[in-house]
Specification:
By secondary structure, the chain is mainly β. It has a single domain, classed as Thrombin, subunit H (Beta Barrel). Helix content is 6%, strand content 52%.
């Protein structure tokens, strides 16, 4: 798991971009990418039940939600902040 010190040492780009998050290939939630760096993303999620560090998730744009051919970003949950409804995602690709 990445420490908070490691998270802060990476350059981040603020995005505030709405996306969808797929969990275990089926559960889909509305989410917002707050910022992104070379190792991963910080995402605010609507509800965190069922999210655990180590779970793999898919991130995709709202417009691509129902398209089968849409590209999806594969990530794993690196950390979780339940108080702020945020998760840190590490890129798998």
């Amino acid at each position: 798991m990445m420490s908070s010190q490691e998270r802060r040492s990476c350059k981040r780009a603020r995005l505030n971009h709405p996306v969808m998050m797929g969990i275990n290939g089926r559960i889909v939630r509305l989410a917002e990418i707050l910022d992104a760096g070379e190792r991963g993303l910080r995402v605010r999620v609507t509800g965190q039940s069922g999210l655990r560090v180590g779970h793999e998730v898919e991130i995709f744009s709202l417009s691509a939600y129902k398209r089968i051919d849409a590209s999806r970003l594969q990530c794993s949950i690196a950390w979780q902040d339940s108080d702020n409804f945020e998760v840190g995602l590490r890129y798998l690709q």
